Amino acid sequence: MHAVVVRVTINEQDAAMEQLRNEVVPRVAQQPGFVNAYWMRKDNSGLSVALFDSEDAASQASERVPSNLAQGVTLEGVEVREVVAQA
Fold it and tell me: Which of these, 54, 71, 73, 82, has the minimum number of CB atoms within 10 Å of its CB?
């Protein structure tokens, strides 16, 4: 399993949250190989971790991140990482 880790700055909280719930989450959940995902925030910093069943699926998903961002959000970084343990 592989994870796509995304870091963002949230510039417009209300607009970003609405678009996240109504558009981004459903779009990510429909991507090939999708397993599960979490979106987290602290102040104006956002972090998401989306799990995929293969490195290829995660890599393809990571390439779509810039076009899947909510309005009012600035992309700070995207990484694909191997999941080596879970509980």
Answer: 82
